[in-house]
User: Which sequence fits this backbone?
């Protein structure tokens, strides 16, 4: 009878114990996590748009021995290459020892985030103020964008091809912009409205000035004064807004959150937290068995369409170029490559928020501080639209994480029938790739200030590295 194990022993062996990752972390590990988070926040503050994320990623890659694939005639194992697609998305590869035909290991994140884009004809004057009209990009709660400091980032391209880069509102010496909200004293009607109707899309007008041009005989004096300032600063006229991509983003920087500094609060963590961790991880990959590929994609927040989104064939062309330059290519080989490949769709997961726990099912939620979050499937209402990873593949990924002591959790996005979401996973899965969603849990997702755990950020970095190795 001495062989009967204690309940506690059995529990340890049989239960899937979901422990807080901080509990058993050593001082040395914490130091590494905190240092890594500092590096991440530095990136976040300088990459508030997809174009800025590409620019900074290129700088990091260039410093670490990566070159444009266009510079290579032939590729061999260990070569480090990237392809920049129209300054808004980037594909990175470290060529492996195995033939590409036998499959590549892909990690794909996105670098666009919810924001407000300027309309093509944005500038107008109303009652002594100048404003810019916006059209929001991605899934936002509109009320969150009022009464906060805003910056303008982007490009204006003139008809002669000259490209003017705009970044105003970030430097301490810069002015900032804002969208006003109604004072509570007069907001009775607004407060009675549904939250989603209280601020309408057409109310999201950015306040940019109030001094009139000093000429009694001219109309729209405030607008004229602003255009005069813009003309002097950037050399543009009103029509140049027609060929611009100007994005309104929060003007504040990311910060450590909490007395214990355990979390990161900042704009654009969906999905730059996965973009940065995967980018950092691929720097550590020297000569992998299978070719390691990292995708930093654009347009995920509005459906991955367009020639910089994941639905475009530009990524296929990049893989074809890898096949061409390693000398492997032959008819229809690309399809075979995809069928032999594996992918982590590196996108953020909804973390359980105790203030809103009613939308989560606690056994199947991701928790901040419990490691990288995997979603076997996303979708909504009967898994609709999900690619649903195969059990065999989930087991492979579990094995990699368990062997490398990476903390992970497998969850769903919210309760059944409450809502749902999607990522770029299905796009690659449709090509034949084995794909699972795998990213960092976030609170306040899509808000101007999102929250992540430094523990999970570090586990994502380690997990992505282990996947490629
Ligand atoms: Mn995302
Ligand atoms: Mn998103």
Assistant:
């Amino acid at each position: 009878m001495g062989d009967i194990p204690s309940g506690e022993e059995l529990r340890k062996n049989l239960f899937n114990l979901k422990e807080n990752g901080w509990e058993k972390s050593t001082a040395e590990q914490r130091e590494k996590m905190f240092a890594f988070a500092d590096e991440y926040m530095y990136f976040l503050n300088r990459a508030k748009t997809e174009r800025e994320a590409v620019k900074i990623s290129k700088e990091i890659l260039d410093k670490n021995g990566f070159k444009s694939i266009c510079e290579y005639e032939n590729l061999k194992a260990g070569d480090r290459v990237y392809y920049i697609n129209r300054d808004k998305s980037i594909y990175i590869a470290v060529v492996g020892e195995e033939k590409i035909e036998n499959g590549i290991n892909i990690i794909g994140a996105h670098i666009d985030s919810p924001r407000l884009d300027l309309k093509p004809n944005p500038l107008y004057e109303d009652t002594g103020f100048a404003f810019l009209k916006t059209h929001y990009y991605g899934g936002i709660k509109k009320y969150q964008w009022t009464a906060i400091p805003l910056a303008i980032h982007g490009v204006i391209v003139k008809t002669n091809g000259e490209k003017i880069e705009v970044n105003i509102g970030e430097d301490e010496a810069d002015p900032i912009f804002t969208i006003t909200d109604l004072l509570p004293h007069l907001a009775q009607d607004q407060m009675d409205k549904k939250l989603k109707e209280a601020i309408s899309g057409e109310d999201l007008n950015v306040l940019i000035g109030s001094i009139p041009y000093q000429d009694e005989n001219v109309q729209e004096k405030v607008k004229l004064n602003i255009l005069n300032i813009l003309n002097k600063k950037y050399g543009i006229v009103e029509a140049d807004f027609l060929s611009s991509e100007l994005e309104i983003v929060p003007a504040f920087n990311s910060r450590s959150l909490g007395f214990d500094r355990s979390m990161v609060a900042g704009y654009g963590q969906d999905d730059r937290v996965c973009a940065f961790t995967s980018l950092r991880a691929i720097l550590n990959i020297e000569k992998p068995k299978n070719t390691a590929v990292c995708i930093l994609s654009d347009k995920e927040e509005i459906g991955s369409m367009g020639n910089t989104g994941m639905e475009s064939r530009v990524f296929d062309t990049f893989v074809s170029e890898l096949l061409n330059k390693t000398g492997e290519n032959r008819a229809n080989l690309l399809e075979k490559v995809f069928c032999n490949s594996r992918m982590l769709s590196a996108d953020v997961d909804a973390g359980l928020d105790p203030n809103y726990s009613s939308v989560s099912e606690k056994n199947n939620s991701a928790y901040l501080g419990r490691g990288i979050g995997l979603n076997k499937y996303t979708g909504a209402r009967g898994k609709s639209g999900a690619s649903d990873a195969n059990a065999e593949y989930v087991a492979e990924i579990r094995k990699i994480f368990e062997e490398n002591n990476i903390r992970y959790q497998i969850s769903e996005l919210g309760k059944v029938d409450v809502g749902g979401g999607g990522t770029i996973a299905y796009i690659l899965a449709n090509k034949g790739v084995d794909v699972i969603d795998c990213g960092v849990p976030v609170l306040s997702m899509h808000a101007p200030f999102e929250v992540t755990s430094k523990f999970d950020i570090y586990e994502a970095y380690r997990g992505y590295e282990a996947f490629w190795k």
Notes: The first strand starts at residue 67 and ends at 68. Residues 110, 270-271, 300, 347-348 surround manganese (II) ion (ligand 1) (CB under 6 Å).
